[in-house]
Amino acid sequence: MPLHEGPHQAAERRLSVNPFYGPANPLGDMAEAPPTHRLPDQPMAPMTAHQLVRDELMLDGNARLNLATFVTTWMEPEAGILMAECRDKNMIDKDEYPRTAELERRCVAMLADLWNAPDPATAVGCSTTGSSEACMLAGMALKRRWAQRSADRYPGARPNLVMGMNVQVCWEKFCNFWEVEARLVPMEGERFHLDPQAAAELCDENTIGVVGILGSTFDGSYEPIADLCAALDALRERTGLDVPVHVDGASGAMVAPFLDEDLVWDFRLPRVASINTSGHKYGLVYPGVGWALWRDAEALPEELVFRVNYLGGDMPTFALNFSRPGAQVVAQYYTFLRLGRQGYRAVQQAARDVATELAGRVEALGDFQLLTRGDELPVFAFTTAPDVKAYDVFDVSRRLRESGWLVPAYTFPANREDLSVLRVVCRNGFSSDLAELLAQDLERLLPDLRRQPRPLTEDRSAATSFHH
């Protein structure tokens, strides 16, 4: 969550209240204009409070036109009804809400089967508030397993975690919060994610694990998880170092099993100890729900697990967050039940088709150069062609926003800071019709952009709308 400072003097104002907001008598029932940064002195009618909040939220962007976010922005009405019926159930209270807990267990079992756990019945997993919490839990397990193996040296030795420069910011937070050295494999040339051999070379006796990403947020590409495991197998043969792999499948772990069945990235690789995903991304559920799974009980140290009474029995739990609604877990089970494998395959294939077709339309305009084509994650990134000098990607992003489209423009990290791109995330609900409208709006902007004397966006850090 972002940290917020208190209001500055200029923010000390009151909300304007329309006389029609009075529930019965526009004069007698009018509420006093409430302050914005302190509690009002008096209560007001519920319809008045509702309208005041709703009016302010109209200034937000349209979520369906937000092509920056990976998060689900559309679900069926039936799912919304189920979520409304379960929003008062606290997921942490397993004994009070045993059926909600059972649906969570079923989702874990379904994911263990989907990700080819050696024995889905013995795989260990849990729901989380999102893939960021799931990554934190996976990182904690990696560190604790390393500490157990290094009991003669720890806490004197400093643990490290190897990953690509393109990792989601939650991994940087994990390393900061849990005092782990982050060893980052830089981008080089046209390689925008982790290189398996370079990752293996950064490992030593203090490496708790290597993170491989199935679907980079920078460009939608899959990292080569099988090649990474092979490089670490070779490292073990040479040095005896046995380094586990965690797969951050925030998006790809809910795409690859359905569209790339021959791609080996999951528990079929013995070196993969754990996997996480976001149920609220390509899992097709409103935020926030994530999932963390471990190959077996050995991969998750018992000392990290807490046990609660559940129907007179014992249920292990592992979480950073406590109180949270059961609605998203119920919605995940609904979606698994509703779609099944064939349904998920159809939905993800439709998203990939939209991505690849739209990428082709963008390339055909002639002003842009594709980095990826949406044929892994339904996501593609592109930049301006070398001969385009009148405008840059930040100008394109700003002009598209005038039509309601939220398309992020951002600069790549160290070693490729010269490269600025636009990225389009194609989710369920972003139809081919909407993609056609985006392509038309982009084409309509080009004559004006080409007439510019130079790129007009001076503050690129303020212009970007990319926040992973």
Overview features:
4-stranded antiparallel beta sheet, alpha/beta, single chain, 12 helices, 468 residues, 7-stranded mixed beta sheet, 13 strands
Compact summary:
This protein is 35% helix and 14% strand. It is built from twelve helices and 13 strands. Helix 2 packs antiparallel against helix 9 (327-364), helix 3 runs parallel beside helix 9 (327-364) and helix 10 packs across helix 11 (432-450).
From the N-terminal CA to the C-terminal CA, the straight-line distance is: 14 Å
Radius of gyration: 24 Å
Largest sheet: 7 strands, mixed
> Could you give the order of the helices and strands?
HHHEHEHEHEHEHEEEEHEEHEEHH
Oligomeric state of the chains present here:
single chain
Strand content: 5-15%
Number of beta-strand segments: 13
**Strand order in the largest sheet:** 1-7-6-5-4-2-3
Helix proportion: 25-40%
What is the tally of helical segments?
Answer: 12
Low-confidence spans: pLDDT under 50, at least 5 residues?
none
Gross morphology:
globular
- Report mean pLDDT, rounded to a whole number: 91
Structural class: alpha/beta
